[in-house]
Design a protein that fits this description.
- 41% of the residues lie in helices and 22% in strands.
- By secondary structure, it is an alpha+beta fold.
- The protein binds flavin mononucleotide.
């Protein structure tokens, strides 16, 4: 029973839907399926989705990995699947029996910057960058969270904790209260 590791790059066929939670709905469905299936097959690894591209890393028994890879390659939610790594593995390097996800947007942005990459393009990853990407996923402790790289970039100012309408109401209430105090004080003296 030989262990292997496999990594590939692919291109999503769907247009990313903007979401507030940061999880693209198609990717969230893939995540759910992976979490349901992979532990049963003793498969571990990680998935990263950004700039409409996927990078996935899998570890497990050779047959289980290759069987799943054949299924994944036929999936119409992506295309141009390019194998980056497919080789024997001495021992497992992931502790959890699930799929991991790159959680910290800042880490990924910093990682890409270090590589001189302006976008997430796993097709251009050489061996070294692949290993660093895997390490980034391995270190991730947020198994339940998937961050969409595109949404991870700072695009807009963070939302104010209270809406402008509520803020205006509070100001008005303050003015009315102040007026009441002043009027009350004038009555007393
Ligand atoms: C980028 C990508 C990664 C995927 N990764 C996995 C995976 O790790 N495990 C898995 O079971 N399915 C994965 N899938 C989904 C499979 O292609 C397939 O839809 C699924 O295994 C079918 O599972 P089901 O028979 O339980 O519905 C992935 C699909 C895509 C597009």
């Amino acid at each position: 029973m030989a262990l292997i590791r496999l990594a590939y790059a692919s291109e999503a066929t769907f247009d990313a839907s903007p979401t507030k939670s940061g999880v693209e709905p198609n990717v969230a469905r893939i995540l759910l399926t992976s979490r349901r299936n992979n532990p049963k097959k003793g498969l571990v690894g990680g998935l990263y989705y950004g700039d409409n591209r996927f990078f996935q890393y899998l570890e497990g028994e050779e047959r289980a990995v290759h069987e799943l890879y054949e299924t994944i390659k036929k999936d119409t939610r992506h295309r141009n699947v390019k194998t980056l790594i497919d080789e024997p593995l001495k021992e497992r390097t992931f502790k959890n029996w699930s799929m991991k996800y790159v959680p910290v947007a800042g880490d990924v942005a910093a990682f890409l910057k270090r590589q001189g990459l302006s976008e997430f393009n796993p097709y251009a990853f050489d061996r070294e960058v692949c290993e660093q990407m895997i390490e980034l996923i391995r270190k991730s402790s947020h198994d339940d969270k998937l961050i969409n790289h595109s949404e991870a970039r700072p695009t807009a100012a963070p939302e104010a904790p209270v809406s402008s309408g509520v803020r205006m109401g509070l100001i008005l209430a303050g003015v009315v209260l102040l007026g009441a105090f002043v009027a009350g004080g004038m009555l007393l003296f």
